[in-house]
């Protein structure tokens, strides 16, 4: 009974019923038409035989010819009777029995020179019969229906064999077809069952590009993405616990030192505590922003503003830190450019990218910020000649808590959330960000702006 719930059985049963009904109808239709045609051929053959004798008797109506006709049919499976107009027997190829006499006694009605079939009930009567008139009488032809019935019986026997063969072939084909169709579905069911139990290492073979193949590929992709998300969640929890634990350890440790050494100069300790508290505050703010982005409640308030003054304002904010490290920041941007963007979020993006470039640049190095149009695309490019990013790390730098510096030193700081937030903000604007880097040479960050979000005022006036 359990097997009745299998989808392969259900699909196979449906296909089987449909195919058997279709084959049954086709075989029945063919049988009926072939039987009708075969019986019709028997009637036509009988009538043509009678008309042939009639034609001979019309030309040579003598006793010798009549006798020759009777002798000729006595050697066949047909019976011929020649009667006068008053239906008196002239000659017959076989003695008349009661059934023949009944047929001959029936009124034939109006009959043309072509003759006609006067008894056609081959299923219930003993004979089928035809009559062909000539000028001096009638030629009756008889054929025993047992011969016709035997012919039809043989035909029915062949149809039964064909039907059984069709039944068997259909059954085998349906079993194979249902297996072929349902095997991928069963594989997908087993795969989803494993996924629900937490086993995400599922592989479903995709052997076709139809809907079943696309569904299998979707399930496989879902398992991979889910597995990736689960790993990301584990890494996220591990990272956030580490990132929160480190500043808390500093705060607790230096607060304890300051508490125990009440007569010492605690300015240094308080500065460290203040610095680590700021890091915690920044981290919580970043986590809050990412949470809002994940809930799609992160609002972008776009407005037009001159781009160069914004960049100069950012440069002025960062100049003390850059000067302290002897790092030169160069900004190149046309004066007549208006940008459609959220100014607060745009400033956050640029400061974050410049801060990263600053941290990983050596003293007396250069950082360039350039806004220009290349191949029809407006690009904001930030380029440094710092230590660069290893090739194996480059694809992952925009992931949350991913850090190229695995040592997490306090000198470089950071939480691994900055670039993730940058990417989210840029994508929320409909822009793109691309990173290019080479170790020992430097890193280039390119923001590809939408064409409609940047306007050259002089071009617009024209």
UniProtKB/TrEMBL annotation:
- Record's PROSITE patterns? HAMP, HIS_KIN
N-terminal signal peptide: none
Which molecular-function annotations from GO does this UniProt entry contain? ATP binding; phosphorelay sensor kinase activity
Task: Please tell me one Gene Ontology term that the record gives under cellular component.
Answer: plasma membrane
Catalytic activity of the protein:
ATP + protein L-histidine = ADP + protein N-phospho-L-histidine
Histidine kinase domain: from which residue to which, for each copy? 239-453
Give the membrane topology, semicolon-separated if more than one.
Multi-pass membrane protein
Q: What is its EC number?
A: 2.7.13.3
Stretches of the chain forming a coiled coil according to its record: none
Name used for this protein in its record = histidine kinase
* Source organism: Weizmannia acidilactici
């Amino acid at each position: 009974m359990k097997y009745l719930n299998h989808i392969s059985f259900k699909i196979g049963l449906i296909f089987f019923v449909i195919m058997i009904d279709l084959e049954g109808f086709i075989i029945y239709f063919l049988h009926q038409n072939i039987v009708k045609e075969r019986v019709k051929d028997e009637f036509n053959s009988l009538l043509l035989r009678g008309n042939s004798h009639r034609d001979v008797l019309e030309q040579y109506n003598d006793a010798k010819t009549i006798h020759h006709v009777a002798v000729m049919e006595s050697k066949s499976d047909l019976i011929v009777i020649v009667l006068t107009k008053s239906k008196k027997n002239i000659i017959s190829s076989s003695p008349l029995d009661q059934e023949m006499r009944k047929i001959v006694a029936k009124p034939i009605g109006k009959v043309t020179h072509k003759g006609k079939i006067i008894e056609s009930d081959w299923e219930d009567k003993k004979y089928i019969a035809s009559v062909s008139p000539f000028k001096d009488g009638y030629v009756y032809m008889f054929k025993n229906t047992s011969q016709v019935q035997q012919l039809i019986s043989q035909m029915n026997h062949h149809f039964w064999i064909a039907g059984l063969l069709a039944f068997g072939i259909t059954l085998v084909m349906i079993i194979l077809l249902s297996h072929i169709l349902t095997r991928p579905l069963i594989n997908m069911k087993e795969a989803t069952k494993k996924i629900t139990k937490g086993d995400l290492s599922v592989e479903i073979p995709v052997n076709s590009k139809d809907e079943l193949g696309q569904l299998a590929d979707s399930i496989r992709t879902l398992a991979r993405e889910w597995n990736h998300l689960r790993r990301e969640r584990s890494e996220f929890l591990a990272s956030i616990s580490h990132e929160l634990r480190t500043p808390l350890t500093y705060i607790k440790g230096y607060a304890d030192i300051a508490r125990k050494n009440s007569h010492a100069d605690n300015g240094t300790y308080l500065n460290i505590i203040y610095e680590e508290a700021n890091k915690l505050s920044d981290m919580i703010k970043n986590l809050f922003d990412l949470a809002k982005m994940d809930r799609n409640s992160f609002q972008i308030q776009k407005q037009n503003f001159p781009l160069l003054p914004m960049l100069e304002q950012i440069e002025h904010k960062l100049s003390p830190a850059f000067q302290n490290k002897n790092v030169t920041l160069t900004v190149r941007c046309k004066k007549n450019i208006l940008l459609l963007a959220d100014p607060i979020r745009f400033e956050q993006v640029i400061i974050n990218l410049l801060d990263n470039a600053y941290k990983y640049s050596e003293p007396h190095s250069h950082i360039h910020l350039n806004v220009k149009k290349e191949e029809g695309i407006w690009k904001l490019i930030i380029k440094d000649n710092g230590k660069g990013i290893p090739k194996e790390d480059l694809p992952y730098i925009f992931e949350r808590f991913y850090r190229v510096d695995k040592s997490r030193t306090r000198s470089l700081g950071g939480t691994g959330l900055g670039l993730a937030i940058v990417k989210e903000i840029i994508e929320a604007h409909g822009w793109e960000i691309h990173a290019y880097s080479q170790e020992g040479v430097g890193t280039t960050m390119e923001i590809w702006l939408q064409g409609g979000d940047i306007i050259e005022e002089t071009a617009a006036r024209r």
